[in-house]
Amino acid sequence: QRQLVASGGGSVQPGGSLRLSCVVSGFTLDYYSIGWFRRVPGKEREGVSCISAKDGNTYYSDSAKGRFTVSRDNAKNTVYLQLNSLKPEDTASYYCAANEDLAGTSCARILDRLGWYEVDAWGKGTLVTVVS
Q: Long-range CB contacts (< 8 A, 24+ apart) of 46-52?
């Protein structure tokens, strides 16, 4: 059974940083692209970042570019999302999701709502709160 568990959230002041971790189990991380998403109650899910299988190419939403960095350590079955220069509007529940992607080409699709059907497994989230 494929499982993903995000952790590392917390409460920080604007301008602060957090590092989120997504630990996976039940599948071989090497063959999966991993996306990070966030959701605010009452609003639609938003694709934030993705790191592809095979080549490790990275993708970011416009709101994440220049501030967030995604990385992966396949040996540790873990994907990270470094959040820097946090803003109050970054407050959300952040969670990761996996897509089996041997070609390493699905990241751009799964970050968009039209590609969410391709996601094979959604993980549990971690709450990030940015407040003065």
A: 46/92, 47/110, 47/111, 47/112, 47/113, 48/81, 48/94, 48/111, 49/81, 49/111, 50/107, 50/108, 50/110, 50/111, 51/79, 51/107, 52/101, 52/104, 52/105, 52/106, 52/107
Q: pLDDT tens digits, residue range 39-48?
A: 998 999 999 9
Place of tokens 């391709």: 118
- What digits encode the pLDDT tens for the residues 47-102? 999 999 989 999 999 999 999 999 999 999 999 999 999 999 999 999 999 999 98
- Reading the block at residue 98, the tokens are 């996996």
- Polymer length of the chain: 132
Q: Could you tell me which of 8, 4, 3 has the C-alpha nearest to residue 81?
A: 8
Residues 6+ apart with CB under 8 A from 94: 6, 9, 20, 36, 37, 38, 48, 81, 125, 126, 127, 128
Q: How many CB atoms lie within 10 A of CB 73?
A: 11
